[in-house]
Amino acid sequence: MEQILVQLMPLFLIFGIFYFLLIRPQQKKARQHKEMVAAVQRGDKILSSGGMKGKVVRVINDSDIEVEISNGVNVVMIKSTISEVVKEQS
Question: Residue 36: which CATH number?
């Protein structure tokens, strides 16, 4: 029994390293993105994952928003494609 435990110890160690260096940070980043997307509101300036910048005109529902990308040009985007909410530089 002790011999099996000694042989499996490196496997457990590798799993622990993968968990703390890869899995856990990825889950944390996904949770932060989900919170950011849920907090988007009218007037926020956003950057989509496709590189399009715009201003949120209205939140349509839990998954869609209307974004003004130029004067008088509005598009409907899926909220999950937002990569960041752009802060105004003063």
Answer: 2.30.30
